[in-house]
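User: I'll paste a sequence; please echo it back and then give the predicted structure.

Assistant: Echoing your sequence first, then the prediction.
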Amino acid sequence: MSLRRTLTLTTLAALTLATASVQAQTTAHNGGRLRALIAQKQAAAAPAVLAAGVQRIADVPYGADPAQRMDVYVPTSPTTGTNSLVASAVRAPVIFMVHGGGWRHGDKAMGRVVQEKVNRWVPKGFILISINYRMLPDAPVAVQERDVQAALMAAQQRAGTWGGDPSRFILMGHSAGAHLVALLNARAPQALREGAWPWLGTVSLDSAMMNVPARMRAPHLPLYDDAFGTDPAYWVAMSPFHQWTAGAPPMQMVCSTQRADDPCQQSDAMARHVRNQGGRAEVLPQDLDHGEINAQLGLDSDYTRAVEAFMGSLDAEVARRLQ
């Protein structure tokens, strides 16, 4: 078993078996580094630890496939501990989160995906929905985007049952999920024609694939070949830059300044492209690595407050609850 494959496994049992196999073939010098990397992977895959007053409604289906599930995080009554919503959750704004993982891995319940976001925003009277979706190799990126739209529409239709407001959704995604929400956002008018409610805006957390053809024609990671293949027409169809349509909601693109592949360059180009066509887009560079962009959003930091400033600019009620 290769080290690369070992480090992509997400369950503790699989990690334990893989660690034993690799460590048996690793020198003592490399063993310490390997153990550190595996410990980091285990921490990243750990489930969220929720604050008091937050309830998770797990595995709500939005399709027939077992991967088509979402978790809903709601404020709960401090007296009952049930899912009876407190007054602040009535007509609550909804943050709709899409995990990353190279279009192939990841899970909606991982702590790095939801923990800090849930624990900051749900007590303020927000609902957070985190989704799973079908992934490679079974589902190409085009199908993944359709799953994200299907989950969004199902969540909007059911939002009222959880105390949410279907007209106050904010889309958010990290890495591959950032690409998927950016692509859906770019094609928002089409989604509305197909039955989605308008959403307020989108926060894209560190995608390097705003312009898919540009990335694929330059030196790039092998995972992009797995996701986007060799057909230039498919690159264009999966590219938020090329699919952006007038009327798309505002978007904030957070990008890591530490990455060698420079996602901020793509984000800057995307923002200029949107603005030149009359839309709204902004870029938020951060001196954080790719994983920290996701895991640290929700901590008490200037980074979190900058994202909240964008969110609050979208809607007065969102701004009020963020105070």
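The chain has 15 helices and eight strands. The beta strands are 54-61, 69-75, 92-98, 127-131, 164-174, 201-205, 251-256, 281-286.
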